[in-house]
């Protein structure tokens, strides 16, 4: 069994460009092509740039994708806590960060605590969960009963027959 530590994933030039918070991007790619990697890097770079966790919303199609994205994000931020300055600077460089100062290193080390302490947590959820939350918050504007319930797949299938 190989017990060597896993080398952190490197990003391509295109992936780093898509993770750059200074530019708008649309990420559309096949399964297994690195979308989650890019999106996690983009969230991290937004946090590094000073955006608050509660100002970031990540929407996915599936609960599994939302859970995977959240897991990867927290693993990355947690790993940074124990890195020395050179290792952390290298990790930030792999994300495409070019301006790495002692202030940036200190912020990077605090991001895990900042994300954990965010009331309500980071918003990484499915499109369905987001829409349900909106409907619950504004039922009258949406023209639905404030006491609506969401049908699960089995119930919806039973009603359609």
What's the quick description here?
The protein is 55% helix and 5% strand. It contains eight helices and two strands, in the order ααβαααβααα.
How is this structure best described in words?
With 161 residues, the chain is mainly alpha-helical. The chain contains eight helices and two strands. A two-stranded parallel sheet has the order 1-2. It starts with 12 loop residues before the first helix and ends with a helix. Mean pLDDT is 86; it is low at 1-7.
Could you list some keywords that capture this structure?
elongated, two-stranded parallel ribbon, 161 residues, mainly alpha, 8 helices
Task: Compute the CA-based radius of gyration.
Answer: 19 Å
- Helix fraction, binned, reads 40-55%
Structural class: mainly alpha
The description of the largest β-sheet is:
2 strands, parallel
Number of helices: 8
Beta-strand level of the residues, as a percent range? under 5%
- Average residue-wise pLDDT: 86
What is the N-to-C order of secondary-structure elements (H for helix, E for strand)? HHEHHHEHHH
Write the layout of secondary structure elements.
Blueprint: H1 13-19, H2 35-48, E1 57-60, H3 63-81, H4 85-94, H5 102-116, E2 123-126, H6 127-137, H7 139-142, H8 153-160
Parallel strand pairs: 1-2
Helix pairs in contact: 1-2, 2-3, 3-5
